[in-house]
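Customer escalation, tier 2.

The customer says the design service returned an amino acid string that "doesn't look like it belongs to this structure." They asked us to rerun it and document both sides in this ticket. The original structure tokens are below, unchanged.
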């Protein structure tokens, strides 16, 4: 008879993902304040005989505006990504809400999360429920009263 060796969890890799919320001490990117300081210094120290042309100044301001908007978009995408990560935990849970049309309480198991026009919705069957309209969240239960997916 062949011998079997049990699998130990101590043999698994010890890996942890880096914490994206930790700030680094040094910064290799140029921020708004640094950009404005450079621009002001450039304007203060320009040669009066050869001042910066309007075209150059407008081009630099347009670049600054573009960089600022890209930074804002990045911040918003990060926030949305974190938010989706946290609300994805609703998938498979039983949620309760009040139907907007009939004003009757309803409940069901969340199938998915959808983002539409900047708002997040839980999809339960054919219903889309705005997350702020959810009144209760519970672990989904099967017909036998035990949590679904739980093994007996």
């Amino acid at each position: 008879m062949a011998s079997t060796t049990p699998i130990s969890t101590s043999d698994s890799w010890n890996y942890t993902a880096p914490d994206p919320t930790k700030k680094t001490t040094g910064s290799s990117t140029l921020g708004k304040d640094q950009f404005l300081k450079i621009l002001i210094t450039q304007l203060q120290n320009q040669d009066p005989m050869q001042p910066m042309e309007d075209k150059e100044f407008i081009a630099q301001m347009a670049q600054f505006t573009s960089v600022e908007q890209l930074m804002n978009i990045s911040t918003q995408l990060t926030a949305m990504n974190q938010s989706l990560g946290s609300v994805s935990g609703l998938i498979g849970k039983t949620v309760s809400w009040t139907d907007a049309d009939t004003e009757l309480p309803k409940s069901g198991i969340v199938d998915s999360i959808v983002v539409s026009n900047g708002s997040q919705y839980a999809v339960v069957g054919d219903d889309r429920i705005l997350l702020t309209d959810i009144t209760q969240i519970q672990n989904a239960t099967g017909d036998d009263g035990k949590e679904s997916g739980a093994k007996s």
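Tier 2 assessment: The sequence is consistent with the input. Residues 5-17, 147-152 have pLDDT under 50 and may be disordered. Strands lie at 93-98, 105-109, 112-116, 119-124, 127-130, 134-139. Sent an explanation to the customer and offered a walkthrough call.
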